[in-house]
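Protocol step 4 of 6: structure prediction from sequence.
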Amino acid sequence: MSLDPGGPGYSWTVKTVMTWSVNFLAQRLPRSPRLDVELLLAAALRCSRVDLYTGMDKPLDVSERATFRDSLRRRAAGEPVAYILGEREFYGLMFAVDRRVLIPRPETELLIDLVLNELKGSAPDGPLSVLDVGTGSGCIAVVLKSKLPPATYVEAWDICAEALVVAAANATKNRTSVEFRMCDALDPRAWVGESLFDYIVSNPPYVAENDERVDPAVRLFEPSRAVFALGDALKFYRQIARMAGPRLKSRGTLLLEVGLDQAAPVAELLSAEGWRTIRIHKDLEGHERSIQACRY
């Protein structure tokens, strides 16, 4: 690809680069070309997106053009913007992300909302404790630790050692203390323990490997272990439904993110395992996205 639409002597300003790049990207990835270009160009220029529009006549130097050209090439090949930038915002905090971890999604913020809304207006009876199963980048665990009372204990599990390295770095980056553990949530031995939690939260792998709705970029770039539940798309929910109850306090709450069309079957298997109060919550797009369950 040549970022030289005007030939020798062309004026490499923010305006001309943006105009050409948006048109170029729209032919390949039509979903959000302007937003993608704004994010990548702002990163290359080390400025905000607002600065782009207040400095349209600013010329790009050779280094800035080279950085942006490389980012635009990667995006045109389908690589997610978050991986190109190396970070993603989640619930007001910034998280480092790369191909070792799943990119945090806006719909996952609903899990945070459910915890905070349940506690709104009521003082906790003693220090709170939270378990995040399948923490990935650590986004859920770190945000909850930052939003809940300082004495809250947060533990986070993941089977992938490389993901835990990213998660621990994100906890440090956001000045939070989380207890990270490497373990397999599908192994019953992982659930053996005496400590009890007020909340068990999980956004587990739940996509069927043959699901044709999956964005090709997810298959190409994001860690398959964090996305796909091979063999049985509900296997993590079956295990959590079976094992989480004994690890919750008597008034504890289980919160799960689910995929499209999974809310009803997950609610059914929770009911079969003795969970009594089961509520399904919709995300901002109207999809049944999260399930809240208690044993009472």
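Step 5 (inspection) to follow. The radius of gyration is 22 Å.
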